[in-house]
C-alpha cells in the first residue's frame, strides 16, 4: 500500500467506527488495518486515533489530519472522474441556442456531421436573437456573438468576429470610398431600424466613437441588408461571417478597415459545473474545428 492507501484506511476506520468493520469493507484483515494505522502514526510522529476495546475516536491531531485526508481523496476521485469522462461517449439530450443568422449560415452545416459522429446525442437547436437564460429555460449551451455580458457562465471563444463596413465595387465607383467615419455623412448607409440598432461603432485614435449614419434603406434582417449592399444600394456594417464569402468573391469591398473594433468574438457559453459533460465538450470541439477555416 502507498500513502494514499493509508489515507483510505484512516478514513474508512473513522467512518466504520471499528477496525473489523473497516477491514471487511477494505478486504483486509483487522490485524493488517491495525498495522497500517500504527505505521502511519509512527511515520507522522503523532497519535491519530484513541483506540480502546469499545470505541475508536480521533485525537485533536487526528481530526485535522482526517479532514485533509478526505479532501485529498475527494480531489483524486474528481481527477479520475474527469479523465474517465474524456473517454466517455457523448450521449443524452443536448439543447443549444444560437443567434438566427450565425446559426443558419455557420452552425447549421455543422450539425449533420456532429449527429452522425455522435448518434447517441439527441440534439435540439433553437435559433433566436434574444438572450436565452440557459438554466431557467433548460438549455445546455448557447452560442453568442459580439461582446459577452458579465455573468456566471463559462465561456469558450470559438472564433474572432469583426463588423465590417462594406459596399459593392459599383457603389464605391459611383460614390467614392470613405476615408474616415465622418465621411459616412455623405453616403447612403443601410441600417437596422430602431434606436441603438442603428449605431455604428468605430475605433478612432484609441477611442470608441459612435455614429448613427442615415440612408434611404432600412431592414430588420441582416441578410436583407447584405443583399442591398451587394445590389449597390449603399454601405452596410455587417458581421464578417455574413459577408466573408462576398469579400472573397469580390461582390463586396471592405472600407474603413483601420477603424474596425477588434474586441468582439463568437463564444460558446454554458453554466458553471464541476465537470463539463462529454456532450458539451464534444459539441464545442466540433464547432472549433468546423469554424476554424471560416474565420476571416
Structure write-up:
The protein contains eleven helices and 14 strands. The two termini are 56 Å apart. By secondary structure, it is an alpha/beta fold. It has three domains: 3-86, Winged helix-like DNA-binding domain superfamily/Winged helix DNA-binding domain (Arc Repressor Mutant, subunit A, Orthogonal Bundle); 92-159 and 264-292, D-Maltodextrin-Binding Protein, domain 2 (3-Layer(aba) Sandwich), CATH 3.40.190.10; 163-259, D-Maltodextrin-Binding Protein, domain 2 (3-Layer(aba) Sandwich), CATH 3.40.190.10. Belongs to the LysR transcriptional regulatory family. Keywords: DNA-binding, Transcription, Transcription regulation. This is LysR family transcriptional regulator. Residues 1-59 form the HTH lysR-type domain.
Q: Beta fraction of the residues? A: 15-25%
Query: What's the number of helices?
Result: 11
User: Which homologous superfamily in CATH is the superfamily of the largest domain?
Assistant: Periplasmic binding protein-like II
Q: What is the C-alpha radius of gyration, as a whole number of Å? A: 30 Å
The sequence of SSEs as H and E is HHHEEHEHHEHEEEHEEEEHEHEEH
Mean pLDDT: 88
Number of domains: 3
For the biggest sheet, the summary is: 5 strands, mixed
Which blocks of ≥5 consecutive residues have pLDDT under 50? none
Total E-strand runs: 14
First CA to last CA: what distance?
A: 56 Å
Task: Provide the helix percentage.
Answer: 40-55%
Protein name: LysR family transcriptional regulator
InterPro entries: LysR-type_TF_proteobact-type (IPR058163), LysR_HTH_N (IPR000847), LysR_subst-bd (IPR005119), WH-like_DNA-bd_sf (IPR036388), WH_DNA-bd_sf (IPR036390)
Family: Belongs to the LysR transcriptional regulatory family.
Keywords: DNA-binding, Transcription, Transcription regulation
